[in-house]
Amino acid sequence: GATLGVLGGGQLGRMFAHAAQAMGYFTAVLDQDATSPAGLVSHHHVRTGYEDAQGLAELAQLCAAVTTEFENVPAGSLNKLAERLPVSPAGSAVAIAQDRAAEKAHFVKCGVPCAPYAVIETAEQLAAVNDALLPGILKTARMGYDGKGQIRVKTRDELVAGWNELGQVACVLEKMLPLAHECSVIVARGRDGTIVHLPVQRNLHRDGILAVTEVYEGNLPAAQAEQAVAAAKSVAIGLDYVGVLCVEFFVLENGQLVVNEIAPRPHNSGHYSQNALDMSQFELQVRCMTNLPLVQPRQHSATVMLNLLGDLWFKDGDTAQAPAWDQILALPGAHLHLYGKVDAKRARKMGHLNITAATAEQARATALKAAEILGIAAF
Ligand code: ATP
Ligand code: MG
Ligand code: MG
């Protein structure tokens, strides 16, 4: 079999490797960490940084095609690999997703509404910010994830202090919007322009981190769901995107749909696809990169996904101890996914639990039961 490569060794790379291997491929991971979740389950593990010319050359030598699981991989490295083998998504698309200012400009270009914002790269731009953007969230333009690199600011003084605290790096200030809820859409687009999508995910974030995803008939009003799918597709088409892309949205209290951000890879909110759809987001990633047919996934079960954060490992004190899974696995429709991370830390994503059932009511009831057992707040 051919070998497929992935830049980044986290859990997304691990689940990509599992999907690729199930389809007969060998996998190669480029990640510096000797115990990276994806490196541990792959046939080849190139242990260099993302910009290491020798590491990239070695990966290119091993692989028939390459993808990424980490959105902050230098776009230049993807471009370099693309001189030698098919790379999806392209460096040009990833570069836009890596920079909140470029990302928002792309949304504007696609005619998809996003939160009112201002780019702040200089003290002059900071001083010129319109008061209408306050209260707001100041976000570093680059490298933020799981709510990191973000400061909520109510006043101009807090804005100035926040920008100083973030090191006066390039930022965007977004107006704080009144959210009714959040949702996301995952699309997969092939080289020939074929595009398929997963059912719309309804997401609950806690402390800036995804906590719960619910996917079943009626999780969102049908018109909102359709609008989100259409917007996600136009964002992907506008990027001439090849691969799996997640588009995150806010639904405002007045029902308006506003795009938040994109992730140029499979996404945490799409993990339910492993057990509730007949094709996972990771298989779609494999199909995109190998030019295999893209077919529309079909949902066969209602589902709720619970993220398993490292906090659950510290319920009984400061020594990490995995929750007792037997009570969870005794629940009907419980699918436990653990990432094989060697050390648990609070707020670190350690795994997820997909609950599937015949109906939304059953899926929710079982998921609430699991949450209670684990000590996760009800939703
Ligand atoms: P991810 O891990 O999804 O990449 P991130 O660090 O890029 O997260 P965002 O998606 O920008 O963070 O924001 C995290 C969460 O903070 C959002 O899901 C939402 O709950 C809240 N949030 C962000 N921006 C706004 C806004 N303008 N108005 C209201 N809430 C917001
Ligand atoms: Mg993000
Ligand atoms: Mg986000």
TrEMBL record:
It catalyses: 5-amino-1-(5-phospho-beta-D-ribosyl)imidazole + hydrogencarbonate + ATP = 5-carboxyamino-1-(5-phospho-D-ribosyl)imidazole + ADP + phosphate + 2 H(+). Residues 104-290 form the ATP-grasp domain. The keyword Nucleotide-binding applies. Gene3D superfamilies: 3.40.50.20, ATP-grasp fold, A domain, ATP-grasp fold, B domain. Pathway: Purine metabolism; IMP biosynthesis via de novo pathway; 5-amino-1-(5-phospho-D-ribosyl)imidazole-4-carboxylate from 5-amino-1-(5-phospho-D-ribosyl)imidazole (N5-CAIR route): step 1/2. PROSITE patterns: ATP_GRASP. ATP binds at residues 100, 139, 144-150, 174-177, 182, 205, 260-261. Its EC number is 6.3.4.18. InterPro entries: ATP-grasp, ATP-grasp_carboxylate-amine, ATP_grasp_subdomain_1, PreATP-grasp_dom_sf, PurK, PurK_C, PurT/PurK_preATP-grasp, Rudment_hybrid_motif. Catalyzes the ATP-dependent conversion of 5-aminoimidazole ribonucleotide (AIR) and HCO(3)(-) to N5-carboxyaminoimidazole ribonucleotide (N5-CAIR). This is N5-carboxyaminoimidazole ribonucleotide synthase. It comes from Comamonas jiangduensis. The lineage of its organism: Bacteria, Pseudomonadati, Pseudomonadota, Betaproteobacteria, Burkholderiales.
